[in-house]
Design a protein that fits this description.
Layout (H helix, E strand, L loop, with lengths): L9 E5 L3 H11 L5 E5 L5 H7 L4 E5 L7 H13 L8 E5 L5 H7 L3 E4 L4 H12 L4 E2 L32 H6 E5 L4
Parallel strand pairs: 1-2, 1-3, 3-4, 4-5, 5-6
Antiparallel strand pairs: 2-7
Helix pairs in contact: 1-5
């Protein structure tokens, strides 16, 4: 992790794997970095609406709704104007999956196994407005997105509140993370 570069941010992590929660929070955690862990991809958009994160990290292989579907849903809501743009880092199982991550609209991806240095560089790049495209040549031609590229009229206003359900608490939780 680059010192001080991802401090004071909120990160939403969409995964059902405890080992991945441990690895990401250990790599990116600090006293002023907070995490929301969504163990069910179907509640990610609601969580983003409730508390806008600076970064969404999605596990490609996650239970009921994996990272590709979560990314596409976030991009669809963005194109409809119901959610603002949020950078997405996809955690892939294989390098060949980068083409799916790319077409889904993710700004960055890493291929597992992960390490703290790569996670930190990717998070820094995406939070800073850039990309982190591991395994992709810099001169790769653009691809057609699976989701229409629409804009969100970012005027700083909230788009509304998410419907509250008792089920969300079982699959999403606020987890403070500390380094170490």
């Amino acid at each position: 992790m680059l010192p001080g570069s991802v401090w004071g941010v909120h990160i939403l992590l969409a995964t059902d794997a405890d080992w991945l929660v441990d690895e990401v929070t250990a790599a990116l955690g600090a006293d002023d970095v907070s995490f929301t862990v969504c163990r069910d991809g179907r509640v990610v958009c609601d969580q983003v609406e409730q508390r806008l994160p600076e970064l969404v990290i999605c596990d490609m292989q996650s239970g009921s709704m994996g990272g590709i579907a979560v990314t596409m849903e976030l991009r669809l809501d963005e194109s409809a104007g119901t959610l603002p743009h949020v950078p997405i880092l996809m955690l892939l199982d294989r390098e060949v999956d980068l083409h799916l991550a790319r077409r889904s609209g993710a700004e960055g991806w890493l291929v597992k196994p992960l390490d703290a240095l790569r996670l930190g560089k990717a998070a820094d790049a995406l939070i800073g407005g850039g990309t982190y495209t591991e395994g992709l040549d810099a001169d790769a031609p653009p691809v057609e997105l699976m989701v229409p590229d629409g804009g969100f009229s970012a005027d700083g206003d909230e788009t509304g509140t998410a419907a509250e359900t008792d089920d969300d608490s079982a699959v999403s939780e606020e987890e403070p993370a500390t380094a170490g």
